Amino acid sequence: MPIATVNPATEETLRTFDPLGPEEIERRLAAAVTAFRHHRTTAFDERARLMNRAADLLEQDQKDIARTMTTEMGKPITAANAEAAKCAKAMRWYAEHAAELLADEHPSAADLADSGADRAYVRYRPLGVVLAVMPWNFPLWQVVRFAAPALMAGNAGLLKHASNVPQTALYLEDLFLRAGYPEGCFQTLLIGSGAVEGVLRDRRVAAATLTGSEGAGRAVASVAGDEIKKTVLELGGSDPFLVLPSADVAAAARTAVTARVQNNGQSCIAAKRFIVHADVYDAFRDAFVAGMRALTVGDPMLESTDVGPLASEQGRRDLEELVDDAVAAGAEVLCGGRRPPEQDRGWFYEPTVIAGITDGMRIHREETFGPVATLYRVGSLDEALEVANDSSFGLSSNVWTRDDAEIGRCVRDLEAGGVYVNGMTASHPAFPFGGVKRSGYGRELSGHGIQEFCNITTVWQR
Predict the structure, then answer these.
(1) Is 410 one of the annotated active-site residues of the chain?
(2) What pLDDT shows up at residue 1?
(3) Residue 301 pLDDT > 80, yes or no?
(4) Least packed by Cβ within 10 Å: which of 47, 100, 171, 312?
(5) Distance of alpha carbon 181 from alpha carbon 76, whole angstroms
(6) Dihedral of the CA atoms 264, 265, 268, 274 (nearest 10)?
(7) Does domain 3-235+439-461 have CATH number 3.40.605.10?
């Protein structure tokens, strides 16, 4: 895939970039190590000053970088502005909380005495240079939620961003330089996927984090495993959205629309499988379908647009194949299910709801990365949980009920890294984020995220 900005709303190639050659990759690796050796010794107050300065600059740049994101991958401009604002908020959160999250841990007096030490503690030390392999769908947020904790912990970062968002990737490197970080502390590597293995195997790279497809995660994890290097993987998702008899059905349906089409439906944590109890199925279906039909599809640069284009022609083709396969096997399209006839350019697809899903359909097993929702009717909580867990993914989940016993069952039994009750899944700096099964391992955000790329060191002293 070429490294290029191609506007998905117009299919126009706006800029192309040459990949870095071996000499420049080597120069950047050397610069990263030099920067890490300095940055790791800085005090938390200095790291916080730099991170807050980066947040200030991002807020000043918000409208410009939002337009860049929308141009490169098609998210509605309102969502792009919100993404930039969220990144600045996360930077400030880590600037404020990193020292506390990485403070030394001390054993109890009894455990200290039992160990035979006069003094003992656990210290969180930075690992070194961390490679981040990041996707295009949230081109700013996915990177910042790695970079903010990693830099506050004293690490250095190398970013291999998706090849269709090169301008956003270069902006991030420039942002941290303008904020005052040492040259090499955070760098963008404009390289193709074929060059990732060489960088990851380099002895100067200590660890890697990847957000992306299952295939990409498997490739990076395989290399890192061979090199015995730490990894965090956040992969695909097919999140269930359970609606049970006591739910506020109107609120659930309104939220379901947002949960499915956020970021044009191209989000790992978007709700994708809507599992509804028979007692409220008809009411939910009607409200949900009406909400999906009412969405405005069009130019993502317009604030009135709800759903923009998919990021690539291949992405739309993949989505169409899943829908066509389901329809051929007997599924019913309740709305959408086609390219908007009024859009003659751009990779648009109508917001879609499909019912009558069976476990033999591809769409039941695979992730739908676009504005397509699958609807299931179930007769009990047990059946709802069975359908929800009948997936190789386990990123997050959504549950709508007012029944405390049902909430308890869902928290206990849903196979996912998150359970969001009477709301939709969203990432926040204060809460850990990640999944189970083929959705990956490890956690981003919160204290768990900043500690992932630390050397958790026991100090025992007599």
Answers:
(1) no
(2) 75
(3) yes
(4) 100
(5) 31
(6) 160
(7) yes
